From TrEMBL:
InterPro entries: UPF0014_fam. The keyword Membrane applies. It is a multi-pass membrane protein. It comes from Pseudanabaena yagii GIHE-NHR1. The chain crosses the membrane at residues 12-28, 61-80, 92-115, 127-147, 182-202, 222-245. This is Iron export ABC transporter permease subunit FetB. Belongs to the UPF0014 family.
Length: 259
């Protein structure tokens, strides 16, 4: 069996040198991102260390209530981050984000857990938390892209939408093209990753498993499952989100209502 190479503190200190190089280039080229790079580096270090200790404890507890509560907190943070990326003011945008992200994630998480991986215990933290984290993270990005694109189009194209309404179109008919464009935009990053997986890049989960000594063929199978799960969850999330956002832009009398 392949021995996993330990990454001790001296090696991690050398790894941070890569950020020092990036920061130096930023200062040299006057990119004005050096401060953000440093803050992001320290945040990622602190957050991941805390998560590491937390997961270590959770793996020992193995209580479904605790694991589901962690996923609930993760979904709230994902919804908040996605909401912060939407420039237009939308009523109830945070609940809309959370509902979209959590429904899309849980639906595909359940499918993946019960039908594909089939662990001995469905709430096994070894599988459930990493899967939830990967799906949630990508659903968050998809939700943010879809919401930003959709709300921008609804505001900018308000006169066109009102014209369609005056001609007898329903709200859904009037905004269908914009909804489709928003969902397509949300799917572009995921589809791009799938298109070049194994040709241009090795996805993160697969790379991590190979580095930890897992058989490359087994790592490929796990990575494919993740890609399929992320893709479907993104689509479900974007569809739910655009549908809920639509309701905030129209009155019960089917008139356009800009926030």
């Amino acid at each position: 069996m392949t021995t996993v190479i330990d990454l001790n503190i001296p090696k991690m200190a050398i790894a941070i040198g890569m950020i020092a190089i990036a920061t130096s280039f930023s200062v040299w080229q006057k990119l004005d991102i050096a401060k953000n790079l440093i803050i992001a580096t320290f945040r990622s270090i602190i957050q991941l260390i805390v998560v590491g200790f937390l997961l270590d404890a959770v793996f020992e507890i193995k209580q479904p209530v605790v694991i589901l509560f962690i996923i609930f907190l993760m979904s709230l943070m994902a919804a908040r981050e996605a909401k912060n990326r939407v420039r237009e003011k939308v009523p109830y945008v945070l609940p809309i984000m959370w509902i979209s992200v959590i429904v899309g994630t849980l639906a595909i998480l359940a499918y993946t857990t019960f039908l594909v991986i089939q662990p001995d215990t469905w709430y096994s933290p070894q599988y459930l938390i990493p899967l939830a984290g990967m799906i949630l993270g990508n659903s968050m990005n998809g939700a943010a892209i879809a919401a930003e694109r959709f709300t921008q189009d609804l505001v900018k194209r308000s006169r066109e939408i009102e014209t369609h309404l005056c001609l007898g179109a329903t709200p859904q008919q009037a905004i269908s093209n914009y909804q489709t464009d928003a969902i397509r935009a949300a799917m572009i990053p995921t589809i791009n990753v799938m298109m070049v997986a194994g040709v241009v890049s090795l996805p993160g989960m697969m790379t991590g498993q190979i580095l930890s000594g897992t058989s490359p063929l087994l790592a490929v199978r796990y990575q494919l499952v993740i890609l399929f799960a992320i893709t479907t969850a993104n689509l479900i999330t974007a569809l739910i989100l655009t549908t809920l956002v639509t309701r905030q832009f129209f009155t019960p009398a089917q008139q356009l209502k800009l926030p």
